[in-house]
Design a protein that fits this description.
2 domains; 43% helix; seven-stranded mixed β-sheet; Aspartate Aminotransferase, domain 2; 386 residues; alpha/beta
Length: 386
């Protein structure tokens, strides 16, 4: 077997969700929202399944969806993408795989920021690349320019940026993005930008895409996700956006991964991007209320929370909360003793992990959050001890 996968465990998301299902625990681990998502999108998917073709759509995606993605970004982020610069994928993880497989040659180095989405490192290594890590520190998880410069070598080819950053729940400022753009230009790097959380931002903050910064239009792959935009994670519809000379190569990798994506879901996302801006805005406010509810409940139980500017997640600093356990031990005991599943943030490090931060998902019904808070608070005293 491929040694990269033979010794690899099950992803932390599936492992914790499986334990939650087996024990009946409240699942605040894996990042999926309660609720149905926008009804217009669901109805469009059902209608297309009956009324439109269910044969292979174009490999690079329905023309209507590719144009809808370009129009969406023009409207929301001021980008001037053309439909031919958009490639539809079966989820953002497939977009990441296609991007990395298309752009990495054996021995190329890829700069990543830890904590990171756990798919990044296996995909880089399967493509023959070498990940180089910039370690971010709580509570602010800021990107340091000196740390970036320390990782670049003559073999560095790509920079992989997740913004907003899961699991840290932070967003890059305009100043930080400008510095990253200057860094990419100075070292002739291509930036692969995982921006799936671009619409899940809070407190009036707006996402800024790296592709819009000076010098980045021709050297950026922008990855988005309909599943995150419409809180329909099971749809697994994503896309890659890049200048034509990059997009052509991305499409060649994509054609031998999933080749294409179910056409009825593509039609549904087309409908959603064209008509559901209000739903997306309302969902942002609703998710922020969930964040604030969980934050107040956890802090009321004596936990110290970290800032959450975006994504579905709120983290707790165990050490600052007076918890002596590491994050893995805490999560194990939390699910066994309190009946609540969370995620240890050390799982998002490939090396030298932060071991005192635990992540909770807050895009749940109020009753679910309240029940989880009550359970956690009830177990607080016992969880504070080794």
């Amino acid at each position: 077997m491929n040694p990269l996968y033979a010794g690899m465990g099950t992803t932390i998301f599936e492992a914790m969700s499986a334990r939650a299902r087996a024990t009946g625990a409240i699942n605040l681990g894996q990042g999926f929202a309660d609720g149905r998502g926008p009804e217009a999108v669901l109805e469009a998917a059902a209608r297309a399944l009956i009324e439109k073709s269910n044969q292979y759509p174009p490999m690079i995606g329905l023309p209507e969806l590719r144009q809808a993605v370009a129009d969406h970004y023009a409207r929301h982020q001021g980008l001037n993408l053309a439909a031919e610069e958009v490639i539809v994928t079966s989820g953002a993880t497939e977009a990441l795989a296609a991007s990395l497989f298309a752009l990495i040659e054996p021995g190329d180095e890829v700069i990543c920021f830890q904590p990171l989405y756990d798919a990044y490192v296996p995909l880089i290594r399967q493509a023959g690349g070498i990940p180089r890590f910039v370690r971010l520190q709580p509570p602010e998880w800021k990107i340091d320019k000196a740390a970036l410069e320390a990782e670049v070598t003559p073999r560095t080819k790509l920079l992989l940026l997740n913004n907003p950053l899961n699991p840290a729940a932070t967003m890059c400022s305009a100043e930080a993005l400008s510095a990253i753009a200057d860094f990419c230009v100075a070292h002739d790097l291509i930036a692969v930008c995982d921006e799936v959380w671009e619409h899940v931002t809070f407190d009036g903050a707006r996402h800024l895409p790296l592709i819009g910064f000076p010098g980045m239009r021709e050297r950026t792959v922008k990855i988005g996700s309909a599943g995150k935009i419409f809180a329909l994670t099971g749809f697994k519809v994503g896309w890659m956006c890049a200048a034509p000379h990059i997009a052509r190569v991305l499409a060649k990798a994509h054609q031998f991964l999933t080749f294409t994506t179910p056409p009825n879901l593509q039609w549904a996302v087309t409908e959603g991007l064209a008509t559901q801006d209000f739903w997306v805005q309302e969902a942002r406010h609703r998710f922020q209320q969930g964040r604030d509810r969980l934050k107040a409940g956890l802090e009321g139980a004596g936990f110290v929370t970290l800032p959450s500017a975006a994504t579905y997640f709120l983290s707790v600093d165990l050490a600052a909360s007076g918890i002596e356990l590491g994050d893995v031990a805490f999560c194990d005991r939390l699910i066994d003793e309190a009946g609540v599943a969370a995620i240890p943030v050390s799982a998002f490090y490939a090396e030298d992990p932060v071991i005192n931060v635990v992540r909770f998902c807050f895009v749940k019904e109020d009753a679910t959050l309240d029940a989880a808070i009550e359970r956690i608070a009830g177990a607080r005293a016992a969880l504070g001890k080794r």
